[in-house]
What we know:
Chain B is an all-alpha fold.
Amino acid sequence: MIGGLELVVGLPLLGAAVVALAGRDDRVADVLGVGVGTVTLGLSGWVWLAGYHASGFQLQSDVTWVRAIGVHWRLGVDGLSGPLVAVTALLSWCCMVALVRRAPSCGQRRGIVALVLLIEAASIGTFLSLDAILFFVFFELVLIPMWFLVADWGDADDPIGRRRAATRFLVVTVTGSALMLVAFLLLHQATGTFDIPTLLKVGGEIPRHTQLAVAVLLMLGFGAKVPMWPLHFWLPDAHSKAPTVGSVLLAGVLLKLGTYGLLRFWSGVIPLGALQVSPYLAGLGVVGILYGALVCLAQSDLKRLIAYSSVGHMGFVLLAISTLTRQGRLAANYANVAHALITGLLFFVVGAIKERVGGSELTTVGRGLYGRAPKLAALFAFGAVASLGLPGLAGFWGEMLSMLAAFSPASALPSVPYLVLMALAGIGVVLTTSYFVLAVRRVCQAAPELPALPDIAADEWLAWAPLAIITVLLGLLPGLLLWAGTSP
Amino acid sequence: MPVLFPLVTSSLLFAIGVYVVLARRHAILVLMGVELMLNAINLNLVAFDALWHDALDAGQSLSLFVIAIAAAEIGLGLAIVLLVFRTHRHINVDELRELADRDDTLASAADGAATS
Amino acid sequence: MTLSVLVALPFLAALATLANGHRSVRAVQLLGCVPTFVAFTLALVLGGEHWGTASPSSYVGDSIATGGIAITPAFRLDQLSAAMLLLATGVALLVQIYSVAFMGKDPRYPTYTALILLFTAAMSLVVAADDLFVLLVGWEVMGACSYFLIAHYWEGEPSRQGAAKAFLMTRLGDVGLLFGIFTAGRAAGTYRISGVLRAVADGRVSTGQATIASLLILCGVVGKSAQFPLHSWLPDAMPGPTPITALIHAATMVAAGVYLVARLLPLFQLSAVAMTVLTAISVVTMLGGACFALVAEDLKRVLAWSTVSQLAYMFGALSLGGYGPGVLHLLSHGAFKALLFLAAGSVISVVGSQRLADLGGLWRAMPVTFASMSVGLAALAGLPPFVGFFSKEGVLGLAARDASDGSARAWLVLVAGLLTAGVTAAYAMRTWLLVFFGSPAEPAEPHAGAREPALLMTGPVVMLAVLTTAGGLAVLSPGFLNVAAEPWRPVTMVLSLAVSALGLVWAYVGWRRLHEGDPAGSLGRARPVLVAEMRVDAVIDAGFVRSAWLGSRVSASTETEVLAPYVRGTDAVMQLASRGLRWLHAGYLTMYLAAVVLGALVIGVLAALVQR
């Protein structure tokens, strides 16, 4: 049975193959990249709408893949994965447009186009997988292109550093996914199936100690990817050495794989284990919020600053997931999408600044960007304000709903610790505001001392505007992502 | 004929083969040692086939396989030995260490290329 | 429908200005004034519909599921919100007109206009919202607009500092507000303001819940309305352009806190603790703000402190349950404080300095501004027949009535209010004398070229002056805002007038005695303490800012000193392990063969053992 979701996974995969084999002409890569990106974006819109109102998994396809161990090629979309598929396709499209004129100077253009398409295909595949092993395969498939992207197309001035950062990223996340695989095998041992819908049905009957082991393994495994404090150490390095599109995809898509995995397997599959481990998850999430914000205050590199801010934002998502309520799942999903859009935008802007001045250190960037490149600076300020969770922009609803979920966690969870965590998250909001205000003050304001920079070009507007517009739209109409249907 | 004779012979052959492979430095002698070991196996196969009157004569057919493989192997091995001799002017296996995982692997390979 | 146009139009105009504003100044002027004018007209229509005893109207959209209590895009208009809409759009319109002349030459005029438009939309959203989250959206967007507008002159350190401080302090309060909304929502089962009030009326909200909710909401209110202890951002926000100070930091945004408390007054009244805290805050802020205004050396700073002090008056009234007096003072203060700031803006733009020491003797050169500002200062000092007198009397009369009933809190408000009235009169007189009479203290030459600014600037000022003069009629008219007028209390009135007169005389005598110098000079040793503003900032700095920096240093060094070594350590262990394995791979063919044979032997032996 084929449901049509193969199209949205297969098209970018095919595109990647064609681009990689297309020969030396970069224009072919550009046309194919943008073309495939656009069509996939359209398809992803269809996928999102298909999962929007319905309950349960839509557009399912189910083909036996490895009969011996009961692995199926099983895809499907629901309200949880739909928005993430759409936002992945959107970010990939933006990257494609950005790559036409602004590919990294090191490495070939068609190579990076093919890798971005491959990452897109594999990420969408991860979101749509309804089989644990298929999920794992796609999950791993994302890593390898990302390694190449950072190692070969990263910071042109630091070949050793970018390779080290890429390898560190690879080692940490592969270790994480190994733990995840063990968790899947434990699940298979207990239930005899890798099928996610079946697991969601029978999950409650798994013995308690197995659930606990699975919960710990999943927390560590996905936590390395999310990244959950203290497993976040690979993130700033990877971001600061990655090319702009690499950073955008890393923050916008790859981190979501971790939180999506937790959402998918957490309270549905292992309710008892989740119940026991969730308070720790919430605690680590809140530590991440505060710690990320505090490190940002002392940060002197713009790309690292945005990277650490991601640690904080993902902390909100973890807090939401750990509440084990429907509200928490909605909040986590919203915060995921909002973070993808806003941080994607910020990385584009910071990447553009880095490209123009030759570095992302605050001293290199210089002050007074409002005067030197007004639109670029204004867009940075917009991204900062969105990222600090200003109501009326997308970031707010995710964070607010996370705290609201922590305000009333599932009845089996201890409510007082969650109240304390909510209050600490509130302090985190203030700290987040302060470091972004500080960043705007250091970068955008003050009388310019360095020469003016080229302002935002037309192709950059094309690549970035969708992110900004959707950030405003989702901020004003949060109902677009919050719906009354039964899923997730 | 008792089965002991061929077994003892094949054991001796195999032991000699192992000794030659481990003790000699000359690549062709090493290859000959391998050949000895293979033939010891062949002898064993044939002996047990005769002993058990195997209906499918699996021992005999397997020994045919081994002979074919041995022929292919010696062909490939000699070709490699010839090439090594051509580039290095010797075929002492202890000095052929280009495939070692060392920091100076590339350097010594470059040296080897330069001297040849 | 009217309401949605009212909110959406300035928002869309703001987007249009941002998109195309840099092309033509004329377009920006039109985009700034015309939508605001339309919004004002719509507000007039809505005000007409809700005049007198008309029943409130509400608009409810589709609710948004959150997995818990739904958020509803709901709006509700009653007398209070219609009046607030009028105030917000009216002042916004005057400010837009004023800015055409005041900011016309500024290269950043387009962004400035767009932000004011966005602010207008946000403020309208706040006053019309019937859902606490909708209100919060407008509330925070206002804060962001305020942040960007204070930092309009971002080349200067005070602007940057003031903007950051304003944003951070209000955000700090807003986290409390957010949690307050959570609590109120849980207690009432809905986030609709009308729903919360209904739950309070039905007795479904317990005192404990009401206390927690209202104290948390109070955090946001204190931050937004610059009340003690989060008061110090407002004076520091003064480096922003003067017209936006008039709009945001005097008439509307800072008053939004008062509006919110007025809206939720029944919830607050459920909790004696919250009301007592509100009284304490208002009393401290009222007197403190007035005293700081008395010694401030910057014209706009004087006015900013007076705003802080006047807002505290409103909170004083609300803390006694005085919905009517509080709201009336809010409206009248909005009018006369906007007037004062716009007039001050005229003075500043003509003289080029806002230090009181640089000003003086301007009454002859700027007669219209002089007259208007005199009206404004008289209203601030609470002199009849200006609007400030009536609204202040309302507050004091209420306090007197409750005090005569034996309420200790009312006594506090009454005494503090009377004292503040005296100090207010004194600093109003001081400002008046220093700006318009005598001669500048420091640059000895008088302002030779000073004359009235453009008509576009004097026009709005005069209009506000007329409103300030005639506004008393509206306040006196029975049934304005559908609240019962406070009965007149001759004793309080005479007392407060006497205190005010005392303040005026004190300032005048001080001025004369010091040879037309600063009357604050006669304060003696109290003056430096007041100029330092009681070092509240230093305490906040030591408490919050330092600890945040400390935390950030600790975290950053955790990152580099604790986590990084572990990461590097893992790297090192892996390197060592790989070096060990590499030794086995030495390239000796014999060794490999020996390993193979040995391996075969081991396997054989093992197999034999297992067989047995």
